[in-house]
Write a structure and sequence with these properties.
With 269 residues, the protein is mainly alpha-helical. The chain has 11 helices and no strands. It has one domain. 41% of the residues are buried.
């Protein structure tokens, strides 16, 4: 009987595959224990309900000259801000949790120990991408389910486009978060730098104010990773007169440029 001998490269790939699965599970447990999951899973829901409580106009139907000719005409105004709320857990995981986590790992010497193994920076980033996408998606789903139960939320015109905008937004934001995480030496530094980027991007996503198409802020927002994600999800939900090619290209560009840059600049200590 003939025997098959695995090549050293195949053995190495299998070892890395098993190691990566273990890394995802381990980092997932650390993430749950070390992160305040309230901010990812529940804060977007709490924020949108709080806005609806203090701003009665969000519970009204979008009619009149203000909304005429827009995809939001005839729906509850709270629908307008929902895509922005779905973008929030993306920003929280990418810019407030991930940089602080990597800064803490570097501060405690965890990454230095990883450097002595076959583990590569891109494997660490990929593991955290999987974890953060999972948790962010859970937070977004909770926000949609609760809001739909309490208010008149319309069904998405194109669910695939909404999901596509969410995942692509997650990829571009994680690329930005990875760039910060690649260099921060302490958890406090990761938190500080992440927050400096976090709040302006929330503005571009429409969290603080409704961004009307055609305005200067809208034009700026559509080339930012979080603003583009919010606009693509809004297009998928309600449709629109113009396909969001610019927003999609912007998110792809952020991801394609920042991801390899983060890997190149990554330091273990």
């Amino acid at each position: 009987m003939a025997t098959t001998t695995s090549s050293p490269r195949a053995v190495l790939r299998a070892t890395r595959s098993r190691g990566f699965r273990r890394l995802v599970l381990t980092e997932g447990k650390v993430w749950v224990r070390g992160s305040d999951i309230f901010w990812v899973l529940l804060f977007p829901t709490v924020l949108i309900l709080g806005q609806a409580a203090i701003a009665p106009e969000l519970r009204e139907i979008a009619t009149g000259d203000t909304w005429a000719g827009t995809p939001f005409y005839g729906v509850t105004v709270i629908n307008v801000v929902l895509p922005a709320m779905l973008a929030m857990p993306i920003a929280i995981t990418a810019l407030t949790i991930m940089p602080a986590s990597f800064g803490g790992f570097r501060e405690r010497g965890v990454l230095k120990r990883f450097s002595a193994t076959p583990m590569r920076p891109q494997s660490l980033f990929a593991a955290h991408f999987i974890i953060n996408v999972t948790m962010s998606l859970a937070g977004a789903l909770i926000a949609v389910i609760v809001t739909s139960a309490l208010f008149r939320v319309v069904e998405p015109n194109n669910v695939a486009m909404v999901v596509f905008g969410f995942v692509l937004g997650m990829a571009s934001m994680m690329a930005l978060g990875s760039l910060v995480s690649a260099r921060v030496s302490r958890a406090s530094a990761g938190t500080a730098i992440g927050n400096i980027i976090f709040f302006p991007l929330l503005l571009t996503a429409g969290v603080f104010t409704v961004i009307e198409p055609g305005t200067v802020l809208y034009q700026i927002a559509r080339v930012t990773p979080l603003g583009a994600a919010s606009q693509v999800m809004s297009y998928g939900w309600f449709g629109g007169s113009t396909f969001p090619w610019i927003q999609i290209v912007a998110m792809v560009a952020w991801t394609a440029v920042l991801t390899p840059l983060a890997v190149r600049l990554f330091k273990w200590t």
